[in-house]
Amino acid sequence: MTATLIRHPAVAGRFYPRDPETLREEVRTYLSPTPAQKPVRALGCIVPHAGYVYSGHVAGAVFAGLEIPELCIVMCPNHTGMGRPLAIVSEGAWETPLGDVPLDTDFAAALKRQCPLLQEDSAAHRSEHAAEVELPFLQMRQPKLKFVPIALGSGEFEPLEQLGLALADVIARQTQSVLIVASSDMNHYESDTITRVKDHLAIEPILRLDAGALYDAVTLHHISMCGFGPAVAMLTAAKKLGATTADLVKYATSGDISGERDAVVGYAGIVVR
């Protein structure tokens, strides 16, 4: 019997608390301001991945209103530059302070068969924070969570579209519901005023479920949305799976927390159904 491959946290104690009880209480705080309502079933969502003090309230607003299934696909940008451009990990588990989250080996294997551009590569994920920071939220909402992590370092539209179409095909064959989580912050390190304008140029095509128009907006207007790749792939998959609506749940910038408006990062929480 082979030992389970465990990925240990890369940013616990920096982006979010390392102590389990402190983390649990902080996540609960971010999940609680949403008015009590029946959680909705969604095909996908976009959530930010900064330190919880800055963007936790936006991510929490999204996750609090969703029915979190037992299987989530978490796609994130590749900030480190390490590894393959489309990198998946298929086996083992990811450790967080709240416990281990097993990977769904069968789904990952099926997705690799459907999308040969995806390559097995743990190096792209080892130090990457953008998928990791979503897990405590998902764990708090779904104790039986399994997931598949995908890090995207490609900035080309075609491979992102191919991944989205393949995701839709594999999800359509599942007997259980699946949530696609696109982990992304919005525009980076420009003034609050400019960031809000640029971010809404990107948000508008997302709300129209138009992956191509999102890609064009990010490229044309030089919007430094780090996770536009995951967003493009998620929108492509959701549209093929029958999505009809997207809702902006919450928008903020880091300046709303820090008070510093000269150089901010934008955060959007969006649900696709």
Compose a concise summary of this entry.
This protein has 273 residues and is an alpha/beta fold. The protein has 10 helices and 12 strands.
Major sheet description:
9 strands, mixed
Structural class: alpha/beta
Distinct helical segment count: 10
| SSE pattern | EHEHEEEEHEHHEHEEHHHEHE
Q: List unreliable stretches of 5+ residues.
A: none
Q: How would you name the oligomeric state of the polypeptide chains in this document?
A: single chain
CATH homologous superfamily placement: LigB-like
Helical amount among residues, as a percent range? 25-40%
- CATH top level? Alpha Beta
The number of domains is: 1
Radius of gyration, rounded? 17 Å
Through-space gap between termini: 41 Å
Number of strands: 12
Strand share of the residues? 15-25%
Shape: globular
> Which CATH architecture?
3-Layer(aba) Sandwich
Q: Kindly identify the CATH topology.
A: Protocatechuate 4,5-dioxygenase, Chain B
- Mean pLDDT across the residues is 97
What attributes characterize this protein structure?
alpha/beta; 9-stranded mixed beta sheet; 38% helix; Protocatechuate 4,5-dioxygenase, Chain B; single chain; 273 residues
Produce the secondary structure layout.
Blueprint: E1 6-7, H1 20-31, E2 44-47, H2 52-64, E3 71-77, E4 86-88, E5 93-96, E6 99-102, H3 105-114, E7 119-120, H4 123-126, H5 135-141, E8 146-152, H6 157-172, E9 178-183, E10 188-190, H7 192-207, H8 211-220, H9 228-240, E11 246-253, H10 255-258, E12 264-272
Parallel strand pairs: 1-5, 2-9, 3-8, 3-9, 4-7
Antiparallel strand pairs: 2-12, 4-8, 5-6, 10-12, 11-12
Helix pairs in contact: 1-2, 3-6, 6-9, 7-8, 8-9
